[in-house]
Write a structure and sequence with these properties.
This protein is α+β, with helices and mostly antiparallel strands. The chain has 15 helices and 23 strands. Strands 1, 8, 9, 10, 11 and 12 form a six-stranded mixed β-sheet that branches. It has a four-stranded antiparallel β-sheet with strand order 4-5-7-6. A hairpin with a 2-residue loop joins strand 6 and strand 7. Helix 13 runs parallel beside helix 15 and helix 14 packs antiparallel against helix 15. About 55% of the residues are buried.
Length: about 600
């Protein structure tokens, strides 16, 4: 999942695996480890007071309200309280539970068929006002693959029979998704990947969409369902009688109100709050964080700047939670742009880069460990990829940078002085709020040490991805505040979307920001995809080593996310998408 986090991206391992192991007769014996939250006595739901209005302050909008298109942390935070996927996570629990689904998925012995039964009496919000059927989930899959909706993680479902290799013109039926009756959905696969596909059934692609209502919006390019989406969860974006989302002011605010058709007896979410008001255009993150810590009935959308982070952790007991994000912050080096197409220039950048300086401006040791490769702690395959120490690569050996070594790599790249002497100007795009802005300023200084010319452009955080970094035509050489977070607990979700050459999207929505297109890396990924157990973890660990060796990106930090709230809020974090869970948070 990209970020703001983005969030957010298998095999028989850990959490999502626990959902399917019993169904396919296996056992969780791969020896993988997990990490837990540091809550400081807060952050877990223990029973809350009903009612009240929570105000979330933030500088970033959602990427999309449309569940078929969202793929960022901010979008997930809204999606998972307004929509219901087949399976979802309770806060503090790394094992998904049936949500729209009535039970665990049933998997055939040949690992090529998945059958899911769904619950009755889950209803769409107004103006649809009817019960969800399996056909609504099939339509969600069909539209995901269309060019008008452009779902952003099709590789996770590429094993579906009939899954298109490129987005379809208009919404076409995916033949591998069938509905024998209104309470049953069947997924037929062309490859024996039922365990990994089942693990991905926690993702927003499984959130029901009513075809008779959405069809007219999906006929447009792009779909306009984003401003007309109906809900199945306990909350909905405030709308009018025609379904227009009057509670969504793009780039400004989102107003979540109760869904009158939500039936608590069908859901694990307590949904204490009556309303959640999100501001998405806070200009100064430091001021917003201070308002939250000293104010009433508020929370901050993501990590606070370093000063407020230290204040919360050291003196605001009960007003914060730290959760291991299961992700990495990285500085992708777009290999399609000169001189970043030269591997020795990229190695020089990694060698010179002061990763400790980046961690310092983001909040210091409180925000996580300095990364030495890409699979983060808590994700299976981490140890196989090198653990905390990382692979034995000289250009990543010194977290504070090694200018002498960097100069040697620049000489190998064809610059005898040890510094870049060309005329290319590299465009770096970052968000206009701290800590992302400060991080990019540090990164710019690191590159300039090597004589590289960098133009830094700051933009609103939500547009950094959708209008710049993810659009190859914009020729962004370096995305200054990029991050990638788990889609589910498996190494494939951390590496395939972001580094597989076959997944480069030449139009909008590209997540391979470095545009790494390495045939050997792709082949290793293809081979690892079909493996299970210890062999799978070893194979994906080796893929991580191969990617790191290409110097396609600077691995910066393995994040811990710190979330803060006011003293009269019982804040609860959801470790799946690493933000406050509105459906479990309450007021004191």
């Amino acid at each position: 999942m990209s970020a703001s986090k983005i969030r957010l991206a298998a095999a028989p391992v850990l959490a999502a695996l626990a959902l399917v192991i019993a169904a396919c007769g296996g056992s969780d014996d791969n020896g993988a480890t997990s990490s837990s939250s540091s809550t400081s006595g807060a952050g877990q739901e223990t029973g809350g007071k009903q009612g009240g209005v929570l105000r979330q302050l933030g500088s970033s909008d959602v990427d999309y309200i449309d569940p078929g298109h969202t793929y960022f942390t901010a979008g997930y935070q809204v999606a998972y309280v307004t929509q219901r996927p087949l399976y979802s996570f309770k806060p503090g629990d790394r094992t998904p539970v049936p949500d729209v689904a009535a039970a665990k998925p049933e998997i055939s012995n040949d690992l090529k068929t998945i059958t899911v039964k769904i619950k009755p009496n889950i209803k769409f919000s107004p103006p649809v006002n009817r019960a969800v059927t399996s056909k609504d989930i099939k339509y969600a899959f069909d539209r995901f693959f269309s060019a008008n909706v452009s779902g952003q993680y099709p590789s996770y479902f590429s094993a579906l029979e009939g899954a298109p290799s490129t987005p379809t013109k208009g919404v076409k039926s995916v033949s591998g998704v069938t509905t024998p009756d209104d309470r049953t959905i069947v997924f037929k696969l062309s490859r024996p990947e039922a365990v990994s596909v089942s693990a991905a059934l926690v993702m927003p692609i499984t959130m029901p969409v009513p075809e008779e209502y959405a069809r007219k919006f999906d006929a447009k390019s792009p779909s306009t369902y984003n401003t007309h989406a109906v809900a199945t969860g306990p909350y909905m974006v405030k709308n009018d009688a025609q379904g227009n989302l009057v509670g969504y002011q793009s780039g400004k605010s989102i107003d979540l109100v109760r869904n009158p058709n939500w039936d608590k007896s069908t859901d694990h979410r307590p949904a204490y709050l009556d309303e959640i008001k999100l501001t998405t255009n806070e200009a100064d993150a430091s001021i917003a964080a201070q308002q939250v810590l000293t104010g009433s009935h508020m929370n901050l959308d993501t990590d606070p700047p370093s000063a407020q982070l230290r204040d919360a952790v050291t003196s605001k007991q009960g007003q914060f939670v730290q959760v291991p994000s299961g992700g990495y912050r990285w500085l992708p080096l777009n290999m399609s742009i000169k001189p970043l197409d030269n591997v020795n220039v990229r190695k020089a950048i990694l060698a010179a880069f002061d990763r400790e300086a980046v961690r310092r401006v983001r909040g210091g040791r409180f925000i996580g460990d300095i990364a030495t490769h890409f699979l983060p702690p808590g994700i299976p395959g981490f140890e196989e990829a090198g653990g905390l120490k990382g692979p034995p690569l000289d250009f990543l050996a010194n977290p504070r940078g090694d200018l002498a070594l960097a100069a040697e790599y620049m000489k190998k790249a064809g610059y005898p002085s040890g510094k870049y002497t060309g005329s290319d100007d590299l465009l770096m795009v970052t968000d206009n709020a701290d800590p992302g802005k400060s991080q990019a300023e540090v990164a710019k200084a690191q590159l300039e040490k090597l004589g590289l010319k960098v133009t830094l452009r700051t933009v609103p955080q939500d547009s950094m991805y959708t209008e710049w970094c993810q659009v190859p035509a914009k020729k962004v050489a370096i995305c200054g505040d990029a991050a990638w977070f788990k889609d589910f607990l498996d190494p494939q979700s951390m590496l395939e979307v972001t580094f597989k050459g076959k997944n480069i999207v030449k139009s909008q929505g590209n997540n391979n920001l470095a545009q790494l297109d390495d045939a050997q890396v792709d082949a290793a990924m293809d081979k690892a995809t079909g493996m299970q157990g210890a062999a799978r973890l070893s194979a994906w660990g080796n893929v991580d080593k191969m990617i790191t060796a290409t110097a396609a990106a600077v691995p910066l930090v393995w994040d811990k996310t710190t979330l803060i709230w006011s003293k009269d809020v019982n804040g609860v974090a959801n470790e799946y998408y690493d933000t406050i869970d509105f459906a479990y948070t309450s007021l004191k």
